[in-house]
Each structure stands twice: as structure tokens, then as C-alpha cells.
Amino acid sequence: MSGQTVEFRTLADLANRVLGGAVVWANDDFFASAHNLINPGPARHDPAAFDARGKVYDGWETRRRRDGLAAPDEVILRLATPGVVRGVLIDTSHFTGNFPPYASVEAVAMLGYPSAEQLRAAAWTPLLAKSELAGDTENGFAIFAEQLSSHVRLRIYPDGGVARFRVHGDPLGDPRFLGGRVDLAATLNGGRITGCSDRFYSAPSNVLAPGRSSVMSDGWENARRRDDGNDWIEVELAGAGQLHHVVIDTSRFVGNAPGAAMLSDAETGEQLLPRTRLSPDTEHRFKIGSSTPVRRVRLDVYPDGGVSRLRVVGELSGQARAELGRRWLALLPDEVAAGIVADELFD
């Protein structure tokens, strides 16, 4: 693993297709589609798989450049939700003699649904300068730019293949759409995992993804405990809010669901849901309440086991929504923030 740190890997992959990331444009994907870059899970590889164009790869592969141009190959991705990028993984797994020797990453913040043409003409900000890559390797790079990004551009020099591209960061929900009762834990609204006892089989950030899980690995699963403790995760909500109900979904976990769960305020210790029995492969809904707005919650499972989704539904406090609005505006480019009517943030 190259780069300075890999701690950002615990954060949500904002480019992941499961969350809603998408490929908007690529200048070339002659050998293998750029859409493979954001597929969940590691790249698969069959050494014997060939088609009329050559070796079949589960990744993005461009043709060998023969035009003598200095311009690199590139792909533009829309993040599932805007956020502050903390690190990127440029995974060249299975690309050995055909990986790009260098890559760079840039970002832009554009609200709404800009076209590929508008994005290509945008003023991009560097996140990662042109950096050396290794073949058949997860190349990890920490990012230190404190800015809001809605789209990212991966450039490879001069050509080659990349299996997966991960963009890990802190999501920041658009405060204009966070009025009323919403899922304050959802990644798309700005929720994020801040602590976890064990992530042996799959990442806890999966529980904050949209929709229902389709397979067991699309959830949080810990190892089997052999002691007297229990497993847990902590979630920082989009903002402090008055809570209404929680959804603890064990779908797809049939023989390995937790026997029980408890939800509490991670900052005060107030019990929001007492220790309650859970059933396997079931979406559970429980009414909860709190004496004051809650900013962070802790889900304890007993003694261990898998959870596919966690929903914490409530309403942001007026103060939390105002703070979120101010931070969101401060992270936007000046020209974008200038076009936002302040009243829109708090309707």
C-alpha cells in the first residue's frame, strides 16, 4: 500500500455504485468498461478469459496510446453524495504489464445534475498530484484538501488498466433537503461510522447505505466472539436531532444474526432502545425517544452477529440545521455558494 496512511479506508466509499456513485464520462475504455471501476467488492480475474479485443479484465482498461499526445486518459465520476474526500484507492489488481505508471485525481463541486460537457469544461481542483503507481496493488493516498467535492476526475498517464477506484470521505448532506423527519444516520444525508468493535468480515459503513441489502456481505459482520464481551458500532448522525424510531435490519443474516441489540446516546449514555431480542433475516422497527437532541448513537449487538442496515429516523434541531448550513456553504466554491439563497437552507 503506497501513500501516507490507510486510515481513510474506514470511511464510506462515496463513489461506490451501491451508494449511488456513477461514471459520467471516459475518453477511452476500449478493452474494459470504466463502469467497472466503482463496482462493489474486489475485482475478479480469470486468466483464461479472452474475447475478440484481447484479455478480459474486471476493471477499466484503455488502449495503448500511439498518437504521441501528452494528454492522459481520464474518467469522470459523480459521487453518491457530495463530501470531503479523505483518501483514494487506485487499485491495479491483476494489471501487471499494462497498469498506468502514474495517476492524478481532481475534484469539483457542482450542484444539480451537470452534463458530461459541463463537467469537462469545469475548473477542476487537484486532490492528488501526478503520483507513481505500482501494478497489481491497492495504491492508497491520503487527501488533505478541505473542500466539498461532488465529482472526481481520475487521470492515468499515459494509458493502461485500473481495477477499482475508491473515493473515501466524510459525506455532507445538502441541508436544503434535510427538513422534517429523515434518516439522520444515512450516508447520503451525512451520517458516518465513528467507531466499531470488529469489522472482520465486512465494513460497518455498509449499514448506512440506501436500500435493502442484496447479499450478506452488503452489511456489517464481525467475527465470532469467544469471550464475555459484545460487538458495537458508533454512528455520528448528520446533525443533532430529536429521534423518532430506529430500524435494525438483519436481512440476509439467517444463521448469524445477533441475539439482541441495544441503542444508546453515545455521548450521554442515555438508553434509547433497551436490550431487545432480534430475529434473523428480519427488518425490525422500534419507536425511540430522547430527552434532548442526539448527535451520536451506539448500537450494541449481543454477543456478536451481522446487521445489514441501521436507520435512525428523526428531525434535525434548528441549531443543528443552521450549523450544517453554514458548514456546507463554507465548503462550497465561492461562485457556487453565491448562487444559494439562504432561505433555501431552512425552508
Explain this structure to me?
The strands form four sheets. Strands 12, 13, 14, 15, 16, 17, 18 and 19 form an eight-stranded antiparallel beta sheet that branches. Strands 1, 5, 6, 7, 8, 9 and 11 form a seven-stranded antiparallel beta sheet that branches. This protein has a two-stranded antiparallel ribbon with strand order 2-3. It is mainly β. The protein has helices at residues 116-120, 318-331, 334-337; strands spanning 22-26, 50-51, 54-55, 60-61, 73-91, 102-108, 125-132, 138-142, 149-157, 161-162, 164-171, 181-183, 192-196, 231-249, 260-265, 271-277, 283-287, 294-302, 309-316.
Number of strands: 19
Portion in beta strands: 35-45%
Number of helices: 3
**Helix and strand element order:** EEEEEEHEEEEEEEEEEEEEHH
Query: Overall 3D geometry?
Result: globular
Taking pLDDT < 50 over at least 5 consecutive residues as the criterion, the unreliable ranges are 1-6
Integer average pLDDT: 92
- Characterize the biggest β-sheet: 8 strands, antiparallel
How helix-rich are the residues, as a percent range? Answer: under 10%
Layout of helices and strands:
Elements: E1 22-26, E2 50-51, E3 54-55, E4 60-61, E5 73-91, E6 102-108, H1 116-120, E7 125-132, E8 138-142, E9 149-157, E10 161-162, E11 164-171, E12 181-183, E13 192-196, E14 231-249, E15 260-265, E16 271-277, E17 283-287, E18 294-302, E19 309-316, H2 318-331, H3 334-337
Antiparallel strand pairs: 1-5, 2-3, 4-10, 5-8, 5-9, 5-11, 6-7, 6-9, 12-19, 13-14, 14-17, 14-18, 14-19, 15-16, 15-18
